[in-house]
Amino acid sequence: MAGPVQAETPTLNATPTLNATPTLSPAELIPASPQIAATSYLVMDAETGEILLSDKEDEQFAPASLTKMMTSYIVEYELAKGNISKDDLVLISEKAWRTEGSRMFVREGTQVKLIDLLQGIIIQSGNDASVAVAEHIAGSESAFADLMNQHAGLLGMKNTYFRNATGLPADQHMSTARDLALLARAIIRQFPENYPIYSEKYFTYNEIRQPNRNRLLWRDDSVDGLKTGHTEEAGYCLVASAKRDDMRLISVVLGTSSEEARAQETQKLLAYAFRYYRTHKLYDGGTPLNTATVWGGQGGDVRLGLAESLAVTVPRGQTDQLEAALDVDRVIEAPVVQGQEYGRVRVTLNGETVREVPLVALEDVAEGGLLKRIWHSIVLFFLSLIG
């Protein structure tokens, strides 16, 4: 009685085909993916989260300074919560000042604006700046690392463990291409007001001007982030993002042989994915897709739709093969709460499910009067005997 029923599905933003065995035209042919000289790599659609190309995406490797994406993410998270301010003056400890590796060149005992430290982390890959903000937010770098791991869990970074805020070599300090892509996606989507920092080519502090180490910012106008990394153990790494037309991609390459190699291998991934894949928006969030009967409610019906916009990533030329179906709960009883799930939307491509998302109530429906509820209960009882 409570099982879903197939409902009439609103038209997709692409005309579905009824051809059971579609044939590809020459325009739809896709070559084999490029050979990538990296120990691990991945390309993800930033909107849908779909992985288009990957190799060893769940294998753990040392992330080097890609770690600082989580450091900057937490700074941006705390800023959004109002717990800290960009104008906060951060006291530079001896530990921060003495931290080795790439540096912003802050001075021990001075106070530096938080926004300057955030830029120093993202653009200059400052280890000293990373330790300084870690101490400012959590009291110590070790406490901040615990916070990093909590955020990693919330973001679904299942194979990541942080020991510090910098990415300097440490036992068990590991991540994966998939997890780093998830982190990059969160930075882009959750804090768009701060994302332009990741595309800045230079930052000057203490009269020292340093360039962003992401070479693609100079080579490709569509690339606008995110972070480079390098240690002897990790090799040369790069998490990049690019937007062309209405499609944004995130790429990760780990363990390449040089700065030039990480840039070139990233270019290969982005060029292939942009050329042969498309992001296709199907439905807007909040748009009614179906109207269902509410038993025992003040109103007779409830509008059902999606909490957020629904898009899919498909190979070029195959959007016409997309089909969607709504599975709506057979019985919906009052009270109905806006946002509560009452079915599923399933999108298929050539018979294979590519996305499945909840179908939710777009409005509240309160309980009706006592007599109406009693009558509807009687009707539902007899309907259950029938079906």
UniProtKB/TrEMBL annotation:
Residues 277-367 form the Peptidase S11 D-Ala-D-Ala carboxypeptidase A C-terminal domain. GO terms for molecular function: carboxypeptidase activity. It catalyses: Preferential cleavage: (Ac)2-L-Lys-D-Ala-|-D-Ala. Also transpeptidation of peptidyl-alanyl moieties that are N-acyl substituents of D-alanine. Pathway: Cell wall biogenesis; peptidoglycan biosynthesis. InterPro entries: Beta-lactam/transpept-like, Peptidase_S11, Peptidase_S11_C, Peptidase_S11_C_sf, Peptidase_S11_N. The keyword Membrane does not apply. SMART domains: PBP5_C (SM00936). It comes from the Bacteria. Keywords: Carboxypeptidase, Cell shape, Cell wall biogenesis/degradation, Hydrolase, Peptidoglycan synthesis, Protease, Signal. It is an enzyme of class 3 (hydrolase). Residues 1-20 are annotated as: Disordered. Pfam families: PBP5_C, Peptidase_S11. Residues 8-20 have a biased composition (Polar residues). Its EC number is 3.4.16.4. Belongs to the peptidase S11 family. This is serine-type D-Ala-D-Ala carboxypeptidase.
